C-alpha cells in the first residue's frame, strides 16, 4: 500500500513538472509572437503614415555602415545574420582584415581607408565589419560619413569568455587549436595566483574601441579615454546595442535601417544565429573572484561605459516602441508647406 502511494505521488509530480514545462514553453512562444507583432505594428504604422517628398528621401543605395566589432561580444552571431541577409536585401558585406589583427590603423591607412570606403561606389550599399577601433571620418577629409553601429558586453563576462576561448576554443571552429591550448588553469585560479592573463588591465578594450585611434585611448585607466568613448557613443554611433539584448538590437536596426536589415528579426528568431559562436568549457567565476575583480579601477571604468551604453540603448528602444495616446507608433510628416 505504501509503495502504491509513493508511485501515485511520483506520478503526480511528473505530471505537474510536464504541465509547468509546457506552460513555460507556451509563455516563451507567446512572448516571441508578441515581440514580432509589436515590431510589425511599429513598421505598419510608420510606413502607412510617412508622407515624404521623393526629392527629400535619402538615397539608401549610397549608404555605408561600419560595425567596428569588439572581440567576444557576440559579433559573430550578428555578422552571420548580415551575411545571410545581404543577397536577399541586395547589399554587400565586407570584412576589414588588418595585419596581425591589430585594432588601430597607421595614419596613412586611416586616410586611405576613409577615402576608399566613401568613394567605392561599386560595392554600395555596404556593411563593413572588423575588430577596429572607432575612426573619426570628420578629421580625414571625406565628403560623406558612414553610419557606425556596435555591441557592448559586461566587461567581466567578456574577459572570462576570452580567457577560456584562448584555451578551449569555441563551437564555431572546434578543431582550431588556440594559443593557450592545454592550459587547464581556471579563471579563479588565475586571479588567485595573480597571473597576467586575468589581469584587470586586459579588460581595457571596450573603452579604447569606442574612444578611437588617439594614443590616450589605449592607456588603461585614462579618464579622458572613458569620457571620449561616451561622447563618441552618443555622437557618432547610430546605435550601440547590448550583447545580452541581441534580439532587441536587431529589432531596432530593422526598424531604423530596413534597407539592410529587413526581415532580420524574424530570421534571427527562427535560425541558429542566436548562438552561432560559444566559448567551449567556460567556467563561471566565483563570488570571491568577482568581488576581487570589481575592486579594480579598470573594471569600474569599463563597467561605467557599459552601464552608460545600456541606459542609452534602453532609452532608444523605449522611444521606438512607445505608443502615443491613440495607441499608434510615433511618426512624423510634413504639412503646411508654403508657398504651394
Helix content: 40-55%
Tell me the fraction of residues in β-strands, as a range: 5-15%
What is the CA-based Rg, rounded?
24 Å
Largest sheet: 5 strands, parallel
What is the average per-residue confidence, as pLDDT, rounded to a whole number? 85
Spell out the CATH superfamily.
P-loop containing nucleotide triphosphate hydrolases
Assembly status: single chain
Can you count the helices?
12
CATH class equals Alpha Beta
Spans where pLDDT lies below 50 across 5 or more residues: 44-51
**For the largest beta sheet, what order do the strands appear in spatially?**
2-3-1-4-5
CATH architectural grouping: 3-Layer(aba) Sandwich
Q: What's the number of domains?
A: 1
SSE order, one letter for each helix or strand: HEHEHEEHHHHEHHHHH
Terminal CA distance reads 93 Å
CATH fold-type name: Rossmann fold
Subcellular location: Golgi apparatus membrane
GO biological process, one term: heparan sulfate proteoglycan biosynthetic process
Subunit structure: Homotrimer.
Transmembrane segments: 7-25
Could you characterize the architecture of this molecule?
- By secondary structure, this protein is an alpha/beta fold.
- It has one domain: 3-Layer(aba) Sandwich (Rossmann fold).
- 50% of the residues lie in helices and 7% in strands.
- It is built from 12 helices and 5 strands.
- It has helices at 2-49, 75-89, 107-119, 155-168, 187-193, 206-211, 223-235, 246-256, 258-261, 264-269, 287-293, 297-321; strands at residues 64-67, 92-95, 126-129, 147-152, 237-242.
- Strands 2-3-1-4-5 form a 5-stranded parallel sheet.
- Helix 7 (223-235) runs parallel beside helix 12 and helix 8 (246-256) packs across helix 12.
- The radius of gyration is 24 Å and the shape is globular.
- It starts with a helix and ends in a 19-residue tail after the last helix.
- Residues 44-51 have low confidence and may be disordered.
- GO terms for molecular function: heparan sulfate 2-sulfotransferase activity.
- Homotrimer.
- It holds the Pfam family Sulfotransfer_2.
Amino acid at each position: 500500500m505504501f509503495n502504491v502511494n509513493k508511485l501515485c505521488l511520483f506520478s503526480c509530480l511528473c505530471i505537474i513538472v510536464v504541465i509547468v514545462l509546457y506552460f513555460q514553453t507556451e509563455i516563451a512562444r507567446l512572448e516571441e509572437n508578441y515581440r514580432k507583432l509589436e515590431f510589425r505594428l511599429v513598421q505598419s504604422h510608420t510606413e502607412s503614415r510617412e508622407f515624404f517628398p521623393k526629392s527629400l528621401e535619402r538615397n539608401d543605395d549610397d549608404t555605408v555602415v561600419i560595425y567596428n566589432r569588439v572581440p567576444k561580444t557576440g559579433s559573430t552571431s550578428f555578422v552571420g545574420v548580415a551575411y545571410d541577409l545581404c543577397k536577399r536585401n541586395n547589399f554587400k558585406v565586407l570584412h576589414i582584415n588588418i595585419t596581425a589583427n591589430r585594432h588601430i590603423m597607421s595614419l596613412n591607412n586611416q586616410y586611405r581607408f576613409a577615402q576608399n570606403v566613401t568613394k567605392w561606389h561599386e560595392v554600395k550599399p555596404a556593411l563593413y565589419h572588423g575588430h577596429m577601433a572607432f575612426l573619426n571620418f570628420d578629421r580625414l577629409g571625406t565628403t560623406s560619413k558612414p553610419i557606425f553601429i556596435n555591441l557592448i558586453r559586461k566587461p567581466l563576462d567578456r574577459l572570462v569568455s576570452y580567457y577560456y576561448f584562448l584555451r578551449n576554443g569555441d563551437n564555431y571552429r572546434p578543431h582550431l587549436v588556440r594559443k593557450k591550448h592545454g592550459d587547464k588553469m581556471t579563471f579563479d585560479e588565475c586571479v588567485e595566483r595573480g597571473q597576467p592573463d586575468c589581469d584587470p588591465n586586459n579588460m581595457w578594450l571596450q573603452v579604447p574601441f569606442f574612444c578611437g585611434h588617439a594614443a590616450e585611448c589605449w592607456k588603461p585607466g585614462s579618464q579622458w579615454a572613458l569620457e571620449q568613448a561616451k561622447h563618441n557613443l552618443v555622437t557618432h554611433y547610430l546605435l550601440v546595442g547590448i550583447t545580452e539584448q541581441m534580439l532587441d538590437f536587431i529589432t531596432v536596426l530593422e526598424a531604423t535601417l530596413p534597407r539592410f536589415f529587413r526581415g532580420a528579426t524574424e530570421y534571427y528568431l527562427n535560425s541558429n544565429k542566436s548562438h552561432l559562436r560559444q566559448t567551449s568549457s567556460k567556467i563561471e567565476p566565483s563570488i570571491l573572484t568577482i568581488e576581487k575583480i570589481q575592486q579594480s579601477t579598470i573594471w569600474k571604468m569599463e563597467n561605467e561605459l557599459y552601464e552608460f551604453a545600456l541606459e542609452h540603448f534602453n532609452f532608444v528602444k523605449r522611444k521606438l516602441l512607445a505608443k502615443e495616446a491613440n495607441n499608434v507608433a510615433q511618426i512624423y510628416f510634413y504639412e503646411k508647406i508654403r508657398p504651394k
